[in-house]
Backbone:
């Protein structure tokens, strides 16, 4: 099926980022078992990179965990969307929660037929889990061999991916306001706050962004229409 082929390619490509995570974890002082545990149990790249970056910068465990949870919170929004598509009982949904991430949700919701969407979710999730964890192990091993991983640009790969994800949101007024306020908070907090805390404080920028979105949303006119 076409969606399986696309899911496999997506999983393999994302696995390359897993290699980057492994290298980053190794250079930040994480052991192979610690890095692998993060990939197996957390299994969401943004949160994993956040945890490692906070720890590498000397931040506390609490700040690292809070940063990871903050970035992972977005995955909870996928639940109401995916639950009707996946079906099954509580046990099946509990297992599905481990694979409820950006890539699996995107592949599942892109399918026109519910059966294909369910198949795309599981196929993407299982292959991505394999590639991501294999990439983590490979990255840790490479990190121990490479004298300077930064010379290969591996340290910039994930931040660059974040910037790429940010660009589409800058096309809207709420997105631009959120980005500017978040950046201002981070710039002000980084020199004075403990590592990890600026990331948490910058999340407050969502408030002004939502306010701008509410102000610019169409409202009902007197006869019930939109204007």
Residues:
């Amino acid at each position: 099926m076409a969606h399986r082929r696309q899911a496999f390619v997506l999983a393999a490509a994302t696995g390359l980022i897993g290699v980057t995570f492994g290298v980053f974890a190794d250079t930040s002082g994480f052991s192979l078992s610690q890095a692998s545990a993060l990939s197996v149990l957390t299994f969401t790249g943004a949160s994993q990179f956040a945890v490692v970056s906070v720890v590498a910068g000397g931040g506390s465990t609490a700040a690292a965990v809070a940063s990871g949870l903050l970035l992972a919170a977005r995955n909870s929004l996928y639940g109401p969307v995916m639950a009707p598509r996946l079906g099954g009982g509580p046990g099946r949904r509990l297992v599905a929660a481990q694979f409820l991430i950006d890539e699996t949700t995107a592949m599942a919701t892109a399918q026109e037929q519910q059966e294909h969407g369910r198949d795309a979710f599981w196929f993407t999730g299982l292959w991505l889990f394999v590639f991501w964890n294999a990439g983590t192990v490979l990255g840790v091993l490479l990190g121990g061999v490479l004298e300077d991983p930064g010379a290969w640009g591996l340290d910039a790969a994930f931040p660059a991916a974040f910037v790429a994800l940010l660009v589409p949101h800058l096309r809207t007024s709420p997105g631009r306001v959120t980005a500017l306020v978040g950046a201002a908070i981070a710039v002000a907090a980084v020199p004075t706050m403990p590592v990890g805390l600026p990331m948490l404080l910058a999340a407050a920028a969502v408030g002004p962004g939502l306010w701008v979105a509410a102000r610019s949303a169409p409202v009902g006119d007197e006869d019930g229409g939109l204007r």
User: Anything to note?
Assistant: Residues 114-145 form the longest helix (32 residues). Residues 2-152 form one domain.
